[in-house]
Amino acid sequence: MLKIRNLYSGFGNLRVLKGVSLHVNPGEIVTIIGGNGSGKSTLLSTIAGIVPALEGEIIFNDENVAGKAPEKIVAAGCSLVPEGRLIFNTLTVRENLVMGAYTRIRGDRGINLGDELAVIFGMFPRLQEREHQLGGTLSGGEQQMLAIGRALMAKPRLIMLDEPSMGLAPIIVKGIFEEIRKLRDAGNTILLVEQNARAALRIADRGYVIETGQMVLEGTSEELLNNNDVQRAYLGKDYRSISD
Amino acid sequence: MIYNAKYESMPRDELAQLQIERLQSTLNRVYRNVAFYKDSFDENKIDIGTIRSIADMARLPFTTKEDLRKSYPYNMFAVPLRDIVRIHSTTGRTGVPIAIGYTRNDILHWSELVARVIAGAGITENDFVQIAFDYNMFTGGFGLHYGAEKIGASVIPSSQSGNVQRQIRIMKDYKTTVLLSTPSYALRIASNLREMGIHPDELNLKTGLFGAEPWSENTRARIEERLHLSAFNIYGINEMMGPGVSGECAERNGLHINEDHYIVEIIDPLTWEPLPHGAEGELVITTITREGFPLIRYRTGDLSSIIEEPCPCGRTTLRMRRVAARSDDMVVINGINIFPTQVGEALKKATGFDPRFQIIIDDADGEDVMEIQVEVLEKMFDDEVKKLLSLKNAIAVAVEREMGVAARITFVEQNTLQMYSEGRVRRVIDRR
After folding, report:
1. Span B354-367, pLDDT tens digits
2. Which of A204, B103, B147, B286 is in Cβ range 3.0-4.6 Å of B292 for a Cys bridge?
3. Fold of the domain built from segment(s) B1-328
4. What's the total number of domains in chain A?
5. Interface check B279 vs A, CB under 8 A
């Protein structure tokens, strides 16, 4: 599905990603874990075409999309749910969702959005209850559901989620991750960037650990959970509790 | 049987992606965590960010056994010592030993890799597997034990007991179906069977997995004939965790390499240049999943070559040809490693000179015998037969003291030893 080789990217003279390689197989949840400033969000932004790739290949379904415009990448089937949700506060829930299908509506004015909205509402009943409410009035968890729903309206083959747990209460995070798992079980492919490594590894099939723009570990979620470096750096187990 | 088809039969392009990802993350880890590699890459002005493909590996420096000895015991470990759950080591018989550290994940991977190799020889949960490898600092016993247990076989940890007859009684009483040992130990079992008057058909053996020393197709035929089993070749070395690097499938034509964990190259042992697939040279291995003791381009000293053609068994992994010799000409005689350089030293001690010599190894009814032919230099020669005889004895004593193996010493005239075409004396002739 997605195959990245030796990707470099950054802002101006600052290189954030320094030779990153990774892959995502169809039907997998793959998570990227790393600390603040490790480059994990830049990685998603680079795949989405928002931050330019300086070097390397981003092969998405046998096509190199490195350097393509963001809307081309969405049209190719790769959607980003950005960090902080970034929903349209002054549009209603319904309007927000319709915006998600923007690249498709442009190509085909005849598509039936009603059925597709019904699917999203089936997945997130709360959104249906709030269908005509303004996005800005939703709670954090509802906004996250809206952001995911909006991404799904583009009918993506790969959904990229950037920090979906950010700013949400633990109980809400649990619900959101449960939804992400259901998305995978329904056949979707997901690339998930998360600070909350424990929650991410609990639902992911595989993961990568990124440090200062370079990958330092790859493995199944189980392997990463077993790794002492991961436990110390990302799972909040301090040195003492490990040695005890 | 293919134990883990996802990895053992992975399409080559997917495997290439996995290998480069794992190689890059291994390089990033050793650069951050192992001073030896940081210094080595910096000294050689290698920016690991520029290693973009497996072919780029040729620019990385080698790791040698000497490097590992210098780092003894812990300087090559890539994780804090509290993350290490096991330490194995080499014997150190030929110098300083090497300590090898394993994390919990390393042990899990090791079990998985050995399980693949054992399953590849057709072993299943219905088998009684007798492990006649040492369970100690050496990696063989434990590694095979984990793999055999993982596939659910009934494991008999008999170890490489000096009491071969007891080993045979266990084999008979427990109805062992699979023997795991060194090839030389298997031959010792065979000759003891004869002494005990037990016909191999009174045993239940059907398969044997043999490794840990270089051996030949001839030896395979001898073992199969004397023990009435199918013999499979397995390969692994202590430095690479132990067994589990590669093993034969039912085709028994080359050993499938676990390429999702090890990247294998063949180099010219003299020029150190990479050789193409098919050419024989020294086996160089890079670990790409290991946490505790990752090694980059480790020179094994073992001579082999790579078979690229797909195997009819369905695995997509590259195969390596059996290791029949080593670049340092090390041979194993009755289970003991013999380096020709040791023989040279013993000769020097006994004679005070540096005569040319040739080691000839043969099979005398199941036992390995060694003959050392020594060129008599003019300065060593004496008309008095008695003096020559005592010199011969002195050599024999020195050799046995140096190597722990007795050898028959023969004096030969100058320029009668077998030579390579380039005019070098063949140090070892193995007739087994």
Report:
1. 899 999 999 887 77
2. B103
3. Rossmann fold (3.40.50)
4. 1
5. no
